[in-house]
Amino acid sequence: MSLDRTALRTSIAVLVGGITVILDSTIVSVALHELAADLHADVSTIQWVATAYLLALGVVIPVVGWLQSRLGAKRLWMAALGLFLLGSVLCSLAWDASSLIAFRAVQGVGGGAMLPLMSTMVMQAAKPADRARLMSVVALPAAVGPILGPVIGGLILGAGDWRWLFLVNVPLCLAGLFLAWRLIPAEQPGRRVKLDLVGLLLLSPALVALLWGLSNVSGTGGFARADVIVPMSGGALLLLAFTLWAVRRRGSALVDLEVLRSRPTWAATALMFLSGASLYGAMLLLPLYWQEVRGEDALGAGLLLIPQGVGSLLSRSVATRLLERSGARWVSILGFALVGVATVPFAFAGVATPMWGLLVALFFRGLGLGLVMIPLMTVAFQGLAHDQVPHASIVTRIAQQIGGSVGVALLAVILATTSFHAAFWWTTGFTALAVLLAFALPTRQPAPEAPSPATPSPVRTAA
């Protein structure tokens, strides 16, 4: 059965433009020490190069649904990609730490709009029968980017100046803009949504406070630090206030939380939180293990992560076929179980553990991560009306972003107070919890046809 041509063309354009954003979120992580030395700043200051990008994402992601209703998906995508391109060029021209931090925030604003829009555009263009196969294309950057980012960053630093970490985005962004212009169809004018200003003033600061607090956990004192407790408490209160506000406003809220009445959507959202914790948390531990325990340098540690990326790449077609035959529940259970089992060898690993065994484990861990991503990103939209898709995309993206920050923060504290063994056992625990939660996902029931924007229907649940 052939894929719908319009949906396929949209997926290709989204893939080329979106992969730069996913890679950029991790590609800079290996360069912090080089940046600190070259820009004459201490590590605590240069850490804001990563933090500013993360906080900018938190500001923009909640408002993407409203922006799409005003500009249309194509124009918003091209504007966001153009802004990301501008931010990349400015970062390469930075003259000190402050300018680099500011330009990274510009990048983050563009990237923050693109991340949820990637899934939204494909889900709205595709027929339900085609969604799994198309999502295997769109999910590729999300699964492989965090794994390959440190590898590419290490290779660039080994061959040239840190400014190429940002200049490498330029050809991809230009290609993405051209393909978006040529391949993505223009949208018909839709219902113009009024901005929920109260919701914006509650949700964006809530996410910024939570992400900022979590980014401070790695310092001395862990979760007991004032710059962790205060922003996280404030963020949690603002998030609660937004939830109460959104429940009252329903479809007119900045982010319509009614989508969480759908069992596939809330289950996929919770699992995206756990997958973010497992993926990004492990991406903190694994390079540190290779460097601190096995004596590798930054480039060597990055290269040793390649088997995990290869496993994730190879799982694309397998995950799609399994999803069509067995449904999201069993594919997700298999994927999370594989990630957990493949993490266990690192919980026992030491200085003398055979390298080949750990590399094999990384390969199977990558397979598991790839198996998980496609069903979660597909089933999250099952049974939703056309106008609800952007809201589900925003909710799942927020869950993954916060989950990744929680995983990194928690494992950083565990590693600082105990050992690599304990930290890897915690990572395994994340996946064990995900296996249990995956039983809430639907089985082989196919996703119903999404109604047109003119005839919205209520949220449906799937067994």
UniProtKB/TrEMBL annotation:
Topology term for the membrane: Multi-pass membrane protein
Gene3D superfamilies: MFS general substrate transporter like domains, Multidrug resistance protein D
Transmembrane region(s): 12-33, 45-64, 76-95, 101-122, 134-158, 164-183, 195-214, 226-245, 266-286, 298-318, 330-349, 355-377, 398-417
Keyword entries, A-Z: Cell membrane, Membrane, Transmembrane, Transmembrane helix, Transport
Compartment list: Cell membrane
Domain named Major facilitator superfamily (MFS) profile: residues: 10-446
SUPFAM superfamilies per UniProt: MFS general substrate transporter
InterPro entries on file: EmrB-like, MFS, MFS_dom, MFS_trans_sf
Listed PANTHER family: BLR6921 PROTEIN, MAJOR FACILITATOR SUPERFAMILY MULTIDRUG TRANSPORTER MFSC
Full protein name: MDR family MFS transporter
Organism lineage string: Bacteria, Bacillati, Actinomycetota, Actinomycetes, Micromonosporales
